[in-house]
Predict the structure of Serine aminopeptidase S33 domain-containing protein.
Amino acid sequence: MATIPASCIFSADLSAIYRRDKTSSFGERRRNPVLKRVAVTTEQTSSNSGTAVTTSGRSFVQEKAQRSSEAEAETSLRRVNVEGDWEESRKSLKDYFDEAKDMIRSDGGPPRWFSPLECGAHSPDSPLLLYLPGIDGVGLGLIMQHQRVGQIFDVWCLHIPVKDRTSFTGLVKLVERTVRSENYRLPNRPIYLVGESLGACLALAVAAQNPDIDLVLILANPATSFSKSQLQPLIPLLQLTPDQ
């Protein structure tokens, strides 16, 4: 008798080898009618019926393993195709500069939130992701991940127009109002603050002033140690920059 793999014992569809014989309530062993037909068919080409049943059982297990491997291969291929489609449609650094130029040219007004079109639709219970940009203020720092991130989050990006002169404190209050408003509207929805450089400092300030709200902070290059930065010698050059 062939050795029974553990996977066959715990599988919902038990293997043919494991179900080869059954025992009746009177203690008599009886042949499984399904396997009996298999044995009869095989015995026509083999003189040893025991060998025939075992061979049939092994063939059944092998076919099942082969079907399982084919299913896994198909799933992997489908995943690769999805990844490939995403890679092809994902925006590049060139797209960032092109869209940033368009936003700057048509700029005006106070700081505001926008949701990128590439993020697509989201479910009502999707967690909220607030992206806080660096000193450029454009708000397109996640452009290469908009499609993928949009599958999970409700994405809002903060845009600070070039000519806007809102202070750091003013920006903190703006983000804080949004956080408090959304937390009041949907108190059980998680809120993620994704801050880059200056935006990371905004996220830290908002979190520090709102300890009663459960926030998740994701900080990229937080500008919290500028006093130790090698850019310090360049500060005097800012005096030569036009005020506008």
About this structure: DSSP finds seven helices and seven strands in the chain.
